[in-house]
Amino acid sequence: VQLVESGGALVQPGGSLRLSCVASGRTLEDYAIIWFRQAPGKEREGVSCISRSLSIPFYVDSVKGRFTISRDNAKTTVYLQMNSLKPEDTAVYYCAPRRSCTQYSDTRESDSWGQGTQVTVSS
Question: What are the pLDDT digits (tens) for 1-12?
Fold first, then answer.
């Protein structure tokens, strides 16, 4: 399934953004959804995942307490609410579907990628 990310922007440190991840013409209820990010010169890393059936959220330590992942009731969109943004959050953000959140912080060859959405945190 191909996903489309949106919502990225230039924001000042301490600001907030909400990213959206949608699939064209279908719902996402059959998938765990992972938000990844890739900063310049760094590897792509998973930062948050929402599980398939119970929508249980998972976060890496660097975003815990600041980011919130959620699904809408219609199961068509997965959001990443990002608060208290820091310059080190600057990256291109991608979402990807999987069967589970196992080892979500790592990329896999089987992951499918959209175009991503740029988040820049700078004063």
Answer: 889 999 999 999
